Amino acid sequence: xxxxxxxxxxxxxxxxxxxxxxxxxxxxxxxxxxxxxxxxxxxxxxxxxxxxxxxxxxxxxxxxxxxxxxxxxxxxxxxxxxxxxxxxxxxxxxxxxxxxxxxxxxxxxxxxxxxxxxxxxxxxxxxxxxxxxxxxxxxxxxxxxxxxxxxxxxxxxxxxxxxxxxxxxxxxxxxxxxxxxxxxxxxxxxxxxxxxxxxxxxxxxxxxxxxxxxxxxxxxxxxxxxxxxxxxxxxxxxxxxxxxxxxxxxxxxxxxxxxxxxxxxxxxxxxxxxxxxxxxxxxxxxxxxxxxxxxxxxxxxxxxxxxxxxxxxxxxxxxxxxxxxxxxxxxxxxxxxxxxxxxx
Amino acid sequence: xxxxxxxxxxxxxxxxxxxxxxxxxxxxxxxxxxxxxxxxxxxxxxxxxxxxxxxxxxxxxxxxxxxxxxxxxxxxxxxxxxxxxxxxxxxxxxxxxxxxxxxxxxxxxxxxxxxxxxxxxxxxxxxxxxxxxxxxxxxxxxxxxxxxxxxxxxxxxxxxxxxxxxxxxxxxxxxxxxxxxxxxxxxxxxxxxxxxxxxxxxxxxxxxxxxxxxxxxxxxxxxxxxxxxxxxxxxxxxxxxxxxxxxxxxxxxxxxxxxxxxxxxxxxxxxxxxxxxxxxxxxxxxxxxxxxxxxxxxxxxxxxxxxxxxxxxxxxxxxxxxxxxxxxxxxxxxxxxxxxxxxx
Lengths: 344, 344
Hints:
Number of strands of chain A: 7
Largest sheet of chain A: 7 strands, parallel
Number of domains of chain A: 3
Shape of chain A: globular
Distance between the termini of chain A: 28 Å
Strand content of chain A: 5-15%
Helix content of chain A: 55-70%
Structural class of chain A: alpha/beta
Radius of gyration of chain A: 23 Å
CATH superfamily of the largest domain in chain A: P-loop containing nucleotide triphosphate hydrolases
Strand order of the largest sheet of chain A: 3-2-4-1-5-6-7
Oligomer: homodimer
Order of helices and strands of chain A: HHHEHEHHEHEHEHEHHEHHHH
């Protein structure tokens, strides 16, 4: 593609042309030229979309919830894109179609765009892909981008960092899982969603989460109050955690996603979090950090690609020594030294 | 630690001293000095252990099966180590204890060693950690190392490459999952285990898997027979796939892990696969490939560590430009160029 053709093409993407968007995403997915030029050009058009990550334990009904959120967002007249990340897809070589089928009622709606992402290799590949896809969709003018991850692993933690607001979905009866993930989940959840709230155990799940949030707030207040402020912090927090001191505490919302119940409130809580991000300046800080992290990921990928290309012969010799009497630790160090002392 | 102290310490590990093994694993886990010296020294003592990967869909009963395999292996008088990889652990900051509790009946048995692994960052960190841990346990003289992964994601695929033999566990009633992962699963499974075989649907699951194996064998035979050999291959394969032609076709075994039923047979099928690996020379090839992949992972980690250290100031300047009017793609390329044209 000529410089001019690329400019015209990215124009179609920023105009919101669905075919251009789909083509841009394919090029980005395959890392096929001129994907880098496209991403560079689109960069100036990004930074407007609001991204919401949806994660949680399997079986909590995340996908149904995402469908209900799409409906609620469309009712407000906003354009919405969904990035669905499916961990089973490396086995099938591509994302499975389940989520698309679930979403078929939105298929003919140009205000909705749905994209499945397969995980690709290691090296932070998943978060890199997700960030690139979110960037294209942002430039294409979607108001809200929903990122759905399946499960609660390391990948999901990485992807949570890509979102402005993270919803952690739980369901009654999966209590053991809540216990297991309790320790670190406060850090990534901005809004908790107790889905399937008509089931037995919903009250207990809400109480559990609220207690957890209260404990988190207490610890934070005690830390702020300093070594002698613990009792002051205790007094401060006898009541429910409030946002009056200017900080934000995760909210708990009950939903019955398949009936659309509570989904409007869930969206409102997210919007409150978004308002807090902007007012506090935290939103700007996060966007800066996110951009820096993206730079790191792109740097890593580019460096490894380049270095393996340059060290091609050296790798062959290292393999030979490895199979004779050396070990991988010694050889790895030798290769690093060789690369960094080389000139083109 | 002095050179002499390291030599003495690694000697304790290769002698099988449980405390020394545990300490070595902690150092390796934390990447704390002198972990590299320890791994280098242990390398010469590795290559004896037989590693079995156990993966499959959640709910198939993998953990119970691992417990039953441990019992069966101990009954044969062999020493066994278990590496349990838990994807929920990044949330809790460390591996949860569930699997250890499940295994408590083996707790006082010095012939059994159980280790949980937390996933750590991206960059192939999980497979690197697993490989290092397996290496220590191999040098410590365990005859069999079981690597249990939870789920069927990209990490599991990577870890499957670490094992000599991979068992894929399924259970009746999880049929949809089998369909979803069908396409690629043949490539990693050496033995299929239909667990909970007393449940309805076990026969269907076995038939499903056998048909899948047959199709795989057919495709392979047709490929070998060349463009005009398709009908010959068809004729060859009208019967069940057999191993008479010197190739190995995955086996299907039924188990009821909680009663220990079928577990002896499962272990026998694994041993048959191991014998096939050695006889065919494929085992040696895989070990070579594995070592080369490990070298690559260690190289990547060392290179990134070194480069981020060297580029510290350049990164700061790149961040500044990024927040003004540049984009992460341009800055990443600039950093790569800066690194590779630098001298110390």
